[in-house]
Write a structure and sequence with these properties.
alpha/beta; Rossmann fold; 6-stranded mixed β-sheet; disordered N terminus
């Protein structure tokens, strides 16, 4: 019951990106899309946040291992997004190896690019649009998201027990304490229970038009939390419990949802025209 409430609360606070939405006509003519960097911004602090280890990595190698794991996640996410967008009709997508080469040519590839940076990258790739992504949650969830959900879950369970016990203070306090002890690990870093997994992945994507003007023309967010048991059963038995495998399942689903929304909504838009100076024509 606690785990179900936790997953429902995460879905509630995640917004409405999963709701069905209208679809625009396919782009005509097709336009060129470059998938830029996908950065991992989730508050991961340990290799164990991203992968399952038989033994905890020694402190002397943990920082280097964490950096390696982060790099692997970012590269994989960029590749998946490139491949999924390439499957959408009438998007011409720069191949992943070429995108990586262009990205490596920019010394500040891991830093947010300004308008001129986007223009330079787009011109070099002959692209009309540059799409980038940010993994703001990846197994580990930012406190701004999980604390409200935890409080809602604790309040719900405490009120249920209170109603059943005549609002006995001791029973309600014990329930709140139990919720705090058992649910914090779930909200903070997910869990694997009875063949099902809770591994929150939140991917935010945005598109910049770079051909004629520098404008953010589109943005989207996808949140995937729950992995049903029947999905994990498609994996080998020794892989199902591994955190990195579970996270990759949800990352793939999040990327698929982002690409599907891009198919429906991402279009080139006319450059915004500056408003005329209203003082013109009024001066003597």
């Amino acid at each position: 019951m606690n785990r179900i409430l936790a997953s429902l609360c995460l879905l509630v606070i995640s917004g409405c990106a999963w709701l069905p939405w209208h679809s625009l006509p396919p782009p005509n003519p097709p336009f060129m899309v470059l998938v830029g960097a996908v950065t991992l911004e989730a508050p991961v602090t340990s290799p164990s946040d991203l992968a399952t280890f038989e033994e905890t990595p020694p402190p002397e190698i943990a920082p280097q291992l964490l950096k390696q794991l982060i790099d692997e996640v970012e590269v994989t996410a960029q590749r998946l997004l490139t491949e999924e967008l390439a499957r959408q009709p009438r998007f011409l997508v720069v191949p992943f190896p070429e995108a990586r080469r262009l990205q490596s040519n920019h010394a500040a590839a891991r830093e947010p690019l300004d308008a001129e940076g986007w223009r330079a990258l787009g011109e070099e790739a002959h692209a009309d649009v540059v799409v980038t992504g940010r993994l703001v949650d990846y197994g580990v969830v930012r406190w701004q998201y999980w604390v409200p959900g935890l409080l809602v879950s604790m309040l719900t369970e405490t009120l249920i027990v209170g109603a059943a016990t005549g609002f006995n203070p001791a029973a309600m306090a014990a329930t709140a304490a139990s919720e705090l002890l058992t649910d914090v690990p779930v909200w903070w870093g997910g869990a694997y229970i009875a063949g099902w997994a809770l591994r929150p992945v939140r991917l935010k994507a945005e598109a910049w038009e770079v051909r004629n003007c520098i404008e953010k023309s589109w943005k989207e967010e996808a949140v995937v939390v729950l992995i049903p048991g029947w999905t994990l059963k498609k994996r080998e038995a020794d892989e199902r419990r591994r955190k990195e495998v579970q996270l990759m399942v949800n990352l793939t689903q999040a990327v698929t949802e982002i690409a599907d929304q891009a198919r429906k909504e991402l279009r080139l838009a006319p450059c915004a025209q500056p408003e005329p100076d209203r003082r013109e024509g009024t001066s003597s």
